[in-house]
Amino acid sequence: MSLLAINWAVVGIKAAQLILSLSILVVLHEFGHYFWAKVFKCRVDKFYLFFNPWFSIVKKKIGETEYGIGWVPLGGYVKIAGMIDESMDKEQMALPPEPYEFRSKPAWQRLIIMLGGIMVNVLLGFFIYAMMLWHWGEQYLPAQNVKYGIVADSLAQSVGLQSGDKILALDGKKVQKFEEIPLDIILNNIKTIEVIRNGNPVNISLPANLSSTIINKHLHFLGANDLRVPIQPLDSIVEVSAAHRAGFIKGDKIIAINNQPITFWDEFTNTVKQNKHQQIAVTVLRNNDTERLSLTVPAEGIVGVNMNTKGLDKIFQFDTIHYSFLQALPAGVSKGCKTLVSYVQQLKILFGGKVNISEGMSGPVGIANLFPAVWDWQAFWTLTALLSMILAIMNLLPIPALDGGHALFCIYEMITGRKPNEKFLEYAQVVGMIILLALMVFAFGNDIFRLFKK
């Protein structure tokens, strides 16, 4: 199979996962509006997955409602009679209100209808998290089990961390899960890190602009790739690489470079990068014997052997929390609430002026790249739950044309007793649609720019 074919296969798998995930989220979100519209006896004219300008892929009318699938996979909609929405049906709005129309219902009923989709997305997120915890449990790496410490890259070194440091606490609070450290630092504006260095506690003060630096420059900070890992026998050698030409074979264990013993992968990679264009002597352990190989390091400092991160569970002791069905339900709600709070904090950072918005906003391509290159149901449901929560928060924003904008007008009417003028609502809907289209174009542009930038 050619490299091009492999890339297209990866693109197809990622796109299929994104489309399936969005289809689930959109159908259930719109069902939330549909359900409450029916409860309050509103007529629903259309229920569509994806948008259908000019034509529909599939459509069928059942009773008073036309159900269909559009050809533009950017969302979906329900058209409720007597409601000013993206359809901008001015002819219907020019007629006298009918009892079955949205505009004829009390403000509190209209508010519930508008919030119905958001409620379903939140409940769906809770449900997915609960079922995942029930089925797979929750695996994590306790910070105390990071026995070899971290690998400090240039960013970590710039704030005072060193390779081998073992992180104990953030702002005096003991770290429980290693995976939560990066997001905690970014979202909670952590000021100090306490580490164990050479057996002694050390407090490190972090710069105030660390979060914005990480986000704006797309840097990773203290993630899974920053665990210090002892050298393991080589799992594979890249063909037509410097290591392949030097005679490395699968199973070799690197033990020294230029007669200097090495223990960790970062020691090997750092030494290689420091000897670009040079020839180094690498000692390996092969079948209980030592072999001395002459390795010429190319200009890019990549020799064709890499650390295998898939075997980390054999090196570090991960913990898994198992849940019964009844235990998983409140645990899923708790995890969903943490996700909502975390995303709101990220929005505050994004729109708080500390980061470049263009660097933090992605369109469909960016979202699709979150999905793995192979079909993985655990990863799929994890991302679907996350996207469900994101969809709920984004729809709650008080922008006309979004559910939050419609809800805001209903709340205004409930407080003041005055219904906004229908002409005002029409203009607000147009302004809201322009804002949303501009954001979509901006996000698409970001995706395209990043593709060409790579």
Automatic annotation (TrEMBL):
One of its GO terms (biological process) is proteolysis. Keywords: Hydrolase, Membrane, Metal-binding, Metalloprotease, Protease, Transmembrane, Transmembrane helix, Zinc. Its cofactor is Zn(2+). GO terms for cellular component: membrane. One of its GO terms (molecular function) is metal ion binding. The keyword Cell inner membrane does not apply. Coiled coil: none annotated. Residues 139-199, 217-288 form the PDZ domain. It is a multi-pass membrane protein. The keyword Hydrolase applies. Signal peptide: none annotated. Pfam families: Peptidase_M50. SMART domains: PDZ. The chain crosses the membrane at residues 6-28, 111-136, 379-412, 424-444. Its main location: membrane. It is found in: Membrane. Its EC number is 3.4.24.-. Belongs to the peptidase M50B family. This is Zinc metalloprotease.
